[in-house]
Amino acid sequence: MIKYDTIIIGGGPAGMMACIAASSYGDKTLLIEKNRRLGKKLAGTGGGRCNVTNSGSLEDLIAGIPGNGRFLYSVFSQFDNHDIIAFFEDNGIQLKEEDHGRMFPTSDKSKTIIEALQSKITELNGQVLTNSEVISVKKQEDDLFLVRTAKQRFHCSKLIVTTGGKSYPSTGSTGFGHDIARHFKLEVTELEAAESPLLTDFPHKALQGISFTDVTLSCKQHHITHDLLFTHFGLSGPAALRLSSFVSGGEIAQLDMLPQLSYDDLAAYLVKHRDKSIKNALKGLVPERVAEFIASAYPDKVKQLTKHQERAIQDKLKALAIPITGKMSLAKSFVTKGGVSLKEINPKTLESKQVPGLYFAGEVLDINAHTGGFNITAALCSGWVAGCPHA
To answer: Of these four, 155, 179, 194, 388, which has the most CB atoms within 10 Å of its CB?
Structure first.
């Protein structure tokens, strides 16, 4: 039986950062991960480039975390996105800023981020046990936690659960952390998909593979301006993923392909190009296949359009109706909405209010954030705070 001060279950960004924080304060620390390597889900983020954080203000961060982001005010007062940037730069990793404040390693490789976190754990003498699945956790009469894997048993006075949600279970996110919470009689809120591609009732083949930059996708008073991708099943890209937090299916979304132009701007544009074919006129505004899709329902020339038809074309450019039939399953979504209820958690320390010494961080909590660096920011920052001593 090996005794540690702190044991962390789950080797994603929250778990690695918790291990770094605990080790930096002198705790004898063990990080247990069931996969062969740390950061398996992190490796695939940002298209394999790892959108590690966002450069925005505190209010930008909270706005980027629609699922209970305000709970993290205390966390961000202790460790925030700018601390993340400083952490990596202090450890020799240069970051670069791209559109919408997204921060990536200059190497454009997620392994750069993962290796930096691993190296820091090693430097601080934190121990890592991979390829080892925790099968049970319980608290003993001596107030120590007993953590069992298939082959070993460990004791610790502080246990941090950073097992993630239930999205992409192939990366190891199976909901085990929620089982731990339930074992200790803690409430776990309903789990559902967030940051999920949208399924639509729309002519997918005509527009499949077309991408837009900074279009506005709206539904139910929610207006998301970001990039969008038409797929064989519906919509993906940041605009669709963010809107997925607010829809379930049965809604009608509206797509404004040209948010920078008004209806009057479009009317003037059509007058200016009245002698062109509709397709060629629209090619100056939208991708060619979109121009073909819109033009197919009308006469050849712009000047042949009636006022009603002109308005209909403007509506398709500014308010294209897209019926949403649902969203991808939790297993195929990027983020889990729901988790360990925040009513159970001290917001300053992330310790359970009911079980002293038990902490939760990252996506296992009922916190969900947008892609664009926000979800990883929440994980890294909450991991750091959970790992720090709060005596």
So the answer is: 194
- How is residue 333 written in tokens? 């979504």
Pairs from 88-93 (Cβ < 8 Å, separation ≥ 24):
88/52, 88/113, 88/116, 91/116, 91/119, 91/120, 92/116
Q: What angle do CA 377, 379, 385 make, to 5 degrees?
A: 100
CA–CA dist 111, 39 (Å, integer): 9
Q: Residues 143-196: pLDDT tens digits?
A: 999 999 999 999 999 999 999 886 655 555 678 999 999 999 999 999 988 889
Question: Which helix H or strand E contains 22, and what residues bound it?
Answer: helix 13-24
The neighbouring-strand residues paired with 138 are 146
Joined tokens for residue 270: 């059509």
What's the mean pLDDT in 278-297? 95
pLDDT of residue 371: 83
Which amino acid is present at 308?
A: H
Closest-CA residue to 47 (of 110, 93, 116): 110
Q: What is the pLDDT of residues 203-238, one digit of tens each?
A: 777 899 999 999 999 998 999 999 999 999 999 999
**How far is it, in rounded angstroms, from Cα 58 to Cα 46?**
22
In the chain, the amino acid numbered 85 is I
Residue 249 zone, left/alpha/beta (φ > 0; ψ -120 to 50; rest): left
Q: Specify the DSSP class assigned to residue 340.
A: B
CA atoms of 367 and 360, how far apart (whole Å): 11
pLDDT at 276: 96
pLDDT tens digits for range 320-365: 999 999 999 877 777 888 999 999 999 999 999 999 999 999 999 9
How many other CB atoms are found less than 10 A from the CB of residue 158?
23
Distances (CA, A) of 272 to 263, 286, 296, 311: 14, 16, 21, 16
Contacts (Cβ under 8 Å, ≥6 apart) of 241 = 195, 196, 197, 334, 370, 371
Model pLDDT, residue 170 = 57
Distance CA 344, CA 186 (A): 7
